[in-house]
Write a structure and sequence with these properties.
The protein is of the alpha+beta class. The chain is built from three helices and five strands, in the order E-H-H-E-E-H-E-E. It has a five-stranded antiparallel β-sheet with strand order 1-2-3-5-4, with helices on one face. The longest helix is centred in the first third of the chain and has 21 residues. The protein is globular and about 40 Å long. The protein starts with 7 loop residues before the first strand and ends in a 14-residue tail after the last strand.
C-alpha cells in the first residue's frame, strides 16, 4: 500500500469491455514516454497492465455497466506502480496452469515479472478490489512536475 505522496499519478476509467485493455495500453505508452520510463520497464509494465485489465474484463463478475479503474503512479523516481480496480470483491489467487491449459497463466506472469504485486479490497465506501504491481526502475524517471518551468 502506498504510504507517501507519489511524485506523479494518473487515473483512467474504462468500460468493462475487451477493447479496454488496448485503450489502457495506448494511454500507458503515452504516459511512459512523457515520464521517460526506460523502454524495457515500459514494455514489462505494458504486458502486466494488459493482463490485469484483461482479467478485470473477463473475470470480474459484476454488472456490465461497472467501470474498471486504472491508476499509474510514480511513488519515487525509481519505482512504477500500476493499480487496476474493478467491482468484484473476490481477490485473485495465483494458480499454476498445466501445459494443457489454454489460460490461467496471467498472475504467474505478473508474479514473475513484477518487483512486487498484490490484491486488496477497495476502501470503505467502495465496492470491489484493486490488483496492483510495482516495477523497480533501473534509473530515475522524470515526473510531469519535473517538466514545469519555474
Amino acid at each position: 500500500m502506498l504510504t507517501q505522496q507519489p511524485l506523479d499519478a494518473v487515473e483512467w476509467m474504462f468500460p468493462r469491455l475487451p477493447r479496454s485493455a488496448g485503450r489502457a495500453r495506448i494511454r500507458f505508452l503515452r504516459l511512459a514516454f512523457e515520464w521517460e520510463v526506460p523502454v524495457d520497464s515500459a514494455e514489462t509494465a505494458l504486458i502486466l497492465l494488459s493482463e490485469l485489465v484483461t482479467n478485470a474484463c473477463r473475470h470480474a463478475r459484476s454488472p456490465r455497466d461497472r467501470m474498471i479503474g486504472v491508476r499509474v503512479l510514480l511513488p519515487t523516481s525509481s519505482l512504477l506502480r500500476i493499480e487496476v480496480s474493478d467491482a468484484n470483491p473476490e481477490l485473485p489467487t495465483l494458480r499454476h496452469a498445466t501445459p494443457d491449459d489454454e489460460s490461467g497463466r496471467g498472475l504467474e506472469l505478473v508474479a514473475a515479472l513484477a518487483s512486487s504485486w498484490g490484491a486488496l479490497p477497495r476502501g470503505q465506501g467502495y465496492i470491489g478490489k484493486t490488483v496492483w504491481f510495482e516495477l523497480a526502475l533501473p534509473s530515475p524517471v522524470c515526473s510531469a512536475s519535473d517538466n514545469l518551468i519555474p
